[in-house]
Amino acid sequence: MSSCSGCSSSGAGQPGAEHKSSAKQNIQDALICSTLDKIRYKLFIMSGKGGVGKSSVTVNTAAALAARGYKVGILDVDIHGPSVPNLLGVTALGIEADRGGLLNPVQVNENLWLVSMDSLLKDKDTAVLWRGPKKTAAIRQFVSDVNWGDLDFLLIDSPPGTGDEHMTVLKTIPEALCVVVTTPQEISLADVRKAINFLQYANANVLGVVENMSGLACPHCGGEITLFKKGGGKELAERYGLEFLGSVPLDPATVVAADMGVPVVMLEGESHAKTGFLNLADAIVTALDRSLEAISGSHG
Q1: Which Pfam families does the entry link to (predicted)?
Q2: Structural domain boundaries of the chain?
Q3: pLDDT tens-digit series, residues 26-58
């Protein structure tokens, strides 16, 4: 990663430094625009709270879309706690560059690719001690310096909260459509309401709301247990006039799949979670097809 423009090594304060910095940013802006022009839909998966399963929703939705035949990329912008590679079973270190100097995303299967901070670390147990400007620079480079190619979908997995990463994504990819993930209980809904308020202030387009961990699928009888209640996500969507994209139940199969490094939608056999994620992917495609924001923001 190159030094951010605020570092002393960048030449700030020297004659012509400001002009050089501006010219460099203009070039990067052009590269970002060129990259995004080749990606039809950009989905920003976020929530105001940690532990609601954003990464699981991102990975399984991406895998479901890939299984439907779409070309899908995952951009993991959780700089400090990237978990997407583990959920996909990606253990390779480093990202290779092509002949043009662009980085190639890690290929998961024939329709699915990934870029994550985790892939750039020599030791996966190393903590990333970065402040805002450096995180912003990294996220921009994940778009401008990566050879994403032609994609139907780019799913962007975010950290909890509404911080530097979220503002950078919305500024860098203004046509991104936000998918807000919550769990049914009030402690989650309270933080998600703050996240929706943030998106309103940022004038971001929200595609809809997903309720994760919506009831527990009993591993013995298949019946439903309302462990964390149910329906809070749908009520939240109705309150804010947002589309409710669907719910995914708690399912022991999801835990097994995560430990194996395989998305539950890619496991053999049927499960409640697999069905939920496949239905969610279909609901997202349907919502995109009828979304005026998506039509105006898509390319190709």
Answers
A1: ParA (PF10609)
A2: 21-298
A3: 999 999 999 999 999 999 999 988 889 999 999
Residue 196 phi/psi, 5-degree rounding, is -65, -40
Distances (CA, A) of 275 to 36, 61, 176, 210, 215: 31, 11, 26, 14, 14
232 is in an annotated binding site: no
Model-wide pTM > 0.85: yes
- Residue 51 annotated as binding site: yes
Helices (DSSP H) in the chain: which residue ranges? 17-36, 54-67, 84-88, 132-144, 164-172, 186-201, 232-240, 252-260, 272-289, 292-297
Residue 50, marked binder: yes
Pairwise CA distance, residues 35 & 24, whole Å: 17
Domain 21-298 has CATH 3.20.20.70: no
Token reading at 41: 């839909």
Instruction: Answer yes or no: is 55 a known binding residue.
Output: yes
Q: For residue 52, say whether it is annotated as part of any ligand binding site.
A: yes
Is 53 annotated in some ligand binding site? yes
Contact 119, 85 (CB under 8 A): yes
Cα 5 versus chain centre, distance: 26
